[in-house]
């Protein structure tokens, strides 16, 4: 006769071995984080799409409080790396650690709860909702209320307070009641930043936040990103194709090429690195608006 503790063990075993889609976890390989100062770390991270290895053995560390950029030509694997870290995509092999904890197989809604916020390369707002509602819904994602759009106004109180706070930070307070879809493109990117910021993450992963913006709007957005980092003590991981921006704002830069890291260092080291110059920077500096 099976006792209740055995049933419990079986059920717990099922829960431990199953991920959020009910698939089995691969067996643990007992890797641990190697650097306690790193807020994020990947170890030999790999993702195949058929014959293509989009991310090919990437090991990198992001220091807490850093502004760490990831650059590389179009198709280098930057967005895939973001997807693997944030839990949007599962790696073929390798590990991801957040504050020393293995988060490799956590889905995105759980990495958000841990404190990792990420943006997508394309604008990702609800155009028919107001600016305020967009941010309020993003706040709710943290409060387990993501799908309860029709709850009474009173229940939204804390989310509303946070939403107005966030709109102030990103400078959209005066546009709170406008439909998000009618905002100028530059303000839509600020709104997206606000939506990532809403649940107050420790790490913001920004995938080409200046994409599609008029050149004269770029410095304002970058100043905003820098102030979010310094005022809020956040860590920023930035994918950015504008080399002037990258060289100006980054503490550290990782260069990817064909899924692999080909260089890492501070802006001075990267701009004088001969491998990077021949593989990438030379091309970029020759036409300024390089590939994404
Ligand atoms: N879901 C997918 N299925 C198949 N191939 C993909 C997928 N996502 C990305 N890729 C491929 O992986 C490579 C890296 O893409 P990506 O990570 O988007 O590069 P980057 O962001 O550096 O431009 C590209 O060759 C791309 O076509
Ligand atoms: Mg990309």
List the defining traits of the structure above.
disordered N terminus; 10 strands; alpha/beta; disordered C terminus; globular; binds magnesium ion; Rossmann fold; six-stranded mixed sheet; 292 residues; 2 domains; binds adenosine-5'-diphosphate
How would you portray this structure in words?
- The structure is a single chain.
- With 292 residues, the protein is an alpha/beta fold.
- The protein has two domains: 31-115 and 203-225 and 233-292, Rossmann fold (3-Layer(aba) Sandwich); 125-200, no CATH class.
- It is globular.
- Helix content is 37%, strand content 21%.
- A six-stranded mixed β-sheet has the order 6-7-8-3-9-10, with helices on both faces.
- Bound molecules: adenosine-5'-diphosphate and magnesium ion.
- Adenosine-5'-diphosphate binds next to β2 and α2.
- Magnesium ion (MG) is lined by residues 78-79, 121, 292.
Describe this structure in a few short sentences.
By secondary structure, this protein is of the alpha/beta class. The protein has helices spanning 4-17, 78-86, 108-114, 131-140, 157-169, 185-197, 218-232, 243-249, 267-271, 274-287, and strands spanning 38-49, 52-63, 67-71, 93-98, 101-102, 116-118, 203-207, 235-239, 252-257, 260-265.
Question: Could you give the topology of this structure?
Answer:
Blueprint: H1 4-17, E1 38-49, E2 52-63, E3 67-71, H2 78-86, E4 93-98, E5 101-102, H3 108-114, E6 116-118, H4 131-140, H5 157-169, H6 185-197, E7 203-207, H7 218-232, E8 235-239, H8 243-249, E9 252-257, E10 260-265, H9 267-271, H10 274-287
Parallel strand pairs: 3-8, 3-9, 6-7, 7-8
Antiparallel strand pairs: 1-2, 1-4, 4-5, 9-10
Helix pairs in contact: 4-5, 4-6, 5-6, 6-7
Bound molecules: adenosine-5'-diphosphate and magnesium ion.
Magnesium ion binds at residues 78-79, 121, 292.
